[in-house]
Amino acid sequence: MELAPLLLLTQLLLLPAVAVVSGEPAAHPGYAHAEEACGGVAGAEAATVLVPAPERREEFDGGRIVDISHYYREDMPAWESLEGTGEFLQLTRSMRNGSDIANFSELRLTAHSGTHVDAPGHVFEHYYDAGFDIDTLDLAVLNGPALLVDVPRDKNITADVMASLNIPKGVRRVLFRTQNTDRKLMWKKEFDTSYVGFMKDGAQWLVDNTDIKLVGVDYLSVGAFDECIPAHLVFLEKREVILVEALNLERVSPGIYTLHCLPLRLRGAEGSPARCIRIK
Prior knowledge:
By secondary structure, the protein is of the alpha+beta class. It has helices spanning 3-14, 125-130, 139-142, 159-165, 179-182, 200-209, 228-236; strands at 17-20, 49-52, 59-60, 65-67, 89-93, 104-107, 116-118, 143-150, 173-177, 214-217, 242-245, 255-263, 271-279. It is globular and about 65 Å long.
């Protein structure tokens, strides 16, 4: 046996693996018989296959890239729900029974599930009717340098709190890490009305006194529960501020990073799930 194939075989044997046997359920069946026609059943006669276990990561490239969006799960909190998100992913066509040549899943989520972005039509009927949806948001605002700040604990974000943060002029994107992250609220199934968010005066102070055009927070709403809609109205009234909610800020420290946040192109939707990352 040549040296290169021997080394490859050794590496494969050291990997955690899942045995996939013909006729038995598998996490993701492989396409062992790619030469079969699309009308056939892929892998029907496959023997036992050794498949490496998938690696789940939050950090990439040695920590240079960190995923700051939450992965979707059934016990992820949902707005004003005690039952969490619930079943959101259903395998509607499966290869397991041998009748389908591919797996097809169906998603059932609200537009404001998990890490997501709000469009102006979320709280303004005239903007909704006029078509100011997720597809109209400025990608230049959703991507670029961002400042992460720690908010004083045990406090909602008021005008006084905003003034105390001393955010420099010229900063256009700010991620606000609060007590919500310390309390791991996004990891609790039950919706918690005591989460930290912006009060109306804090939102107004930001709009009037800063150059911030993107506001990111670490729970399901930018506005504190008691002033949720008033805070949203301030932020979205002029269509100049984009709101990113339910970010996962556990693995990042205060500082300046590059932010990339991409909602789905859901034309007609007032919100959308998003994948957000920060890069050193």
